Amino acid sequence: MQFGNVDIEFLGHSGFRIKIKNEKIIVIDPYNLDEKAVGDKADIILITHSHYDHCSIKDIEMIRKEGSVVICPADVQSKITRIEGLKMEIIEAGDELALGHLKIEAIPAYNTNTERNFHTKKDAWVGYVVKYDNIIIYHSGDSDLTKEMERLSGYGKQGNIFIALLPVSGKFVMDVEEAVEVAKKINPSIVIPMHYGSIVGTIGDAERFVKRCKEEGIRAQILNRI
After folding, report:
1. In this structure, which CATH number among 3.30.230.10, 3.10.105.10, 3.10.180.10, 3.60.15.10 belongs to the domain 2-215?
2. What DSSP assignment string belongs to the chain?
3. What's the pTM value of the predicted model, to 2 decimals?
4. What are the domain boundaries of the chain?
5. What is the pLDDT of residues 196-210, one digit of tens each?
6. What is the pLDDT of residues 39-59, one digit of tens each?
């Protein structure tokens, strides 16, 4: 999906590749990649947390190149150090890194639904906001609706294109109805469902999410996995 000089590709589960023309290639949480779809290697790899379906060494090896920068929370460090030739930046929620014209901000990601305790606030795991010119992309990581998310509603204002990537599978993360509530609160220009079709969740969850968003006047779209 193209937004000006920025192209977003869905790699499956919670994985995405963001291509910024003449700038950087960013990959977020690659997992269970199809070798035919690996494509251009990443300049920057964003890892939201240490669970195997978000920090997969095999998949990072597939999309990395010499000098790729991995940005990750502290508890991911021990896994990433197994891979030679990578640079690593440890990030905490609230941090923002400037990489040329690109800015990357870390946002807390955790479960608030009391029936889930898979991602706690004390784990200090994150989602990411990627900012390039007037295009802002929010990848929530594995999260429910949190109070920190609500301030993101301002990103859709002042002529920005604000794209939200939200999980919809339920069980470990927010389900369809909870994800719709998040979309209503943060008010993105467009929302794209994720975290389905691999370990938990189905294309049916993504389709129901898009349908419910449209009922609420929110633009939503499923990206085909490359």
Report:
1. 3.60.15.10
2. -EETTEEEEEEETTEEEEEETTS-EEEES--S--GGG--SPPSEEE---SSTTTS-HHHHHHH--TTPEEEE-GGGHHHHTTSTT-EEEE--TT-EEEETTEEEEEEE----STT--SS-GGGT-EEEEEEETTEEEEE--S----HHHHGGGGGG-TT-EEEEEEE-B-TTS-BHHHHHHHHHHH--SEEEEES-SSSS--HHHHHHHHHHHHHTT--B-PPPB-
3. 0.95
4. 2-215
5. 998 888 999 999 999
6. 889 999 999 999 988 999 999
